[in-house]
Design goal:
This protein is α+β, with helices and mostly antiparallel strands and about 100 residues long. It has helices spanning about 65-70, 85-95; strands at about 5, 30-40, 45-55, 60-65, 80-85. It has a 5-stranded mixed beta sheet, with no helix packed on it. The protein starts with a strand and ends with a helix.
Length: about 100
């Protein structure tokens, strides 16, 4: 899987809004929340859950708003894994929080 931070995206765009078109192939992105793993040069990893992003079904790249990556202080890390967030687990978690 290719991973991409969506650097082409404007830094003035709201953090929670992923871009709509793939900068590589211009096809529409499927937007949603993804659980992702970033790996740093020293081999350590950071897991992030329910990150808003866009996935290109055509070229397989995932695009995350660079402002969000900066907020999470992950600019020096590489995105190595992403999977769509399980909505059933999210619903159970939200119900427990109430």
């Amino acid at each position: 899987m290719k991973a991409h931070h969506g650097v082409e995206q404007s830094r003035h765009q709201p953090i929670s809004r992923p871009q709509e078109r793939c900068p590589t192939c211009s096809r529409r992105l499927t937007t949603g929340n993804f659980d992702v793993t970033f790996r740093f040069a020293d081999g350590s990893e950071q897991l992030c859950f329910a990150i808003p992003a866009g996935l290109c079904d055509n070229c397989g790249e995932i695009h995350i708003n660079p402002a969000l990556v900066a907020t999470l202080e992950l600019e020096s890390a590489r995105l190595v894994f992403a999977i769509e967030t399980d909505r059933v687990a999210q619903k159970k978690h939200l119900m427990r929080a109430e």
